[in-house]
Fold this sequence. Notes:
Layout: H1 10-22, H2 26-31, H3 35-38, H4 53-63, H5 65-74, H6 83-90, H7 101-112, H8 116-119, E1 120-123, E2 129-130, E3 134-141, E4 146-152, H9 156-177, H10 179-184, H11 186-200, H12 203-216, E5 223-224, E6 237-241, E7 245-247, H13 253-258, H14 262-280, E8 282-284, E9 292-295, E10 300-302, E11 308-310, H15 313-327, H16 331-340, E12 342-344, H17 350-367, H18 374-387, E13 390-392, H19 394-413, H20 419-438, H21 441-470, H22 483-513, E14 521-522, E15 525-526, H23 527-550, H24 552-560
Parallel strand pairs: 5-10
Antiparallel strand pairs: 1-3, 2-3, 3-4, 4-6, 7-9, 8-11, 9-10, 12-13, 14-15
Helix pairs in contact: 1-9, 4-5, 4-6, 5-11, 9-11, 14-19, 14-20, 15-16, 15-20, 16-17, 17-18, 18-19, 22-23
Amino acid sequence: MTLSLKPESLKRYKDIIALLVKYGRSDLVKQASLAKTGGNHSNALAPTVAPKAEELASDLETLGATFIKLGQLLSTRGDLLPEPYLDALSRLQDQVEPFPYEDVEQIVSSELGVRISKAFAEFDREPEAAASLAQVHRAYLRDGRAVVVKIQRPGVRDQVVNDLDALEEVANFIDAHTEVGKRYEFGHLQADLRRSLLRELDFQREASNLIRLGENLRAFNKLIVPVPIEDFTTSRVLTMEYIAGKNISNLSPLRLLELEGGADLADELFRAYMKQILVDGFFHADPHPGNVFLTDDNRIALLDLGMVSHINETFQEKLLQLLLAISEGRGDEAAEIAIRMGEPKPNFDKADYKHRVASLIARQADTTLERIDAGHVVLEMTRISADCWFRMAPEFTMIAKTLLDLDRVVYTLAPDFDPNAVIRREATSILVQRVAKSIRPGGILSSVVEAKEFVEKFPSRVNKILDVVGNNEMKINVDAIDERVVLDGLQKVANRITLGLILAALIVGAALMMRVETSFRILGYPGLPAIFFMLAAIAGVILAASIAFYDKKPKKKKDED
């Protein structure tokens, strides 16, 4: 495979290679022969001073939206980066200079089909926040409702697509030409990033996510999800109700001290995520403190649903078993469950994998008497998986990110919160909810149709079986050991043992007869013992030749078959 350079992406190729070189992965540049592509950045393939973890976050912020999202995804890859880098990337701030209000007016007007002054009674010219993909403005609808309007940056989709193409080229090239690429499979990481980013750029999808999550969390009174205004929402403009409050990361220590019921909020938030992940199979995958608000009436608001994930029922069951095993410190069982959740590569070392996972959970249980942080354990398991040549399911990385972000939020609200107690306490409730979910009209109707088909075909199938039995045509194929082969083998062993005993007797007898004086001699030795020795030698040679050549024939024939 060769790297097909696109002229419009040359700058991005150089940026990517410069990052690899700066942060100690010049070996990838050398092995993949990317040094020429990197230009001046790759002349010195080793940094003179090891960069700090915060520098990587800063460099990714400078490179824009695609690389900021890449950094957030890398924050869950304990197999790729050391702990300080993971911590720095998990706090990556997506804050950039806002784009001009003239662009805001042009985008909103073209998307909604009317001027801003016609659609909104008021519209703030200054944004509340500006990020790499979009910025947010406060506004009021004509009916007086307070809303926020999220507007996509001009040209950002094209830039993201070009960046993703460049990353894909480099990732696939490294995977094909380096040992590290084959082990860590950067192409899969890039595919996850592409899928996540392109979904985030579709604001109508985000509006649907807000509606769906709000419906799924109706039973949680202390949680709120903003409702989108569908008539004022397009793929590039999202209008939703305004929720007054502050994100968790901006709360002052005094505000946290004054907060009553912080433990209850943390408990309800964690239970809500358990339901999203283990019951609904649809969850908000980006609950970092910047996307979680504490409202003025002391509720929790979940914002920015551009990044969501889906998991199927089979994976949910295995994940519930894994979380229970982790929360109870059952390392061996957790390792077995994890193996069922992924796919071994050709060099997979199962024994080492099970030992390291079990040791990890035992170590966590010993060092944290009150709790085991499931998020950190799951993150460390991804590192062990890569080291042992084991591929975890793609959903696993997103769940690790979600649990890590969730840990930071709940510990901010309640430093003594124990998520593992919630997992153990809620396991029965989650199982009941899963059963109730399976007993839905569609599922019942499907079962009825299958039962109807079984009843209709049952008589004809029974008749076919009886006809076969009555006509003496039934055959049963049993894949068992061929007794003839066994008997032949045993007979061969018995014959050789017998021949061996005869040869031994000839040799021993000849040795004893050597002392008997006789006139019949051969080459100066007594004749009869000499004949016995020769017969034993000839028979021994024949036996050795038979073992060396004749016994290989069946094996060779079997191999050829």
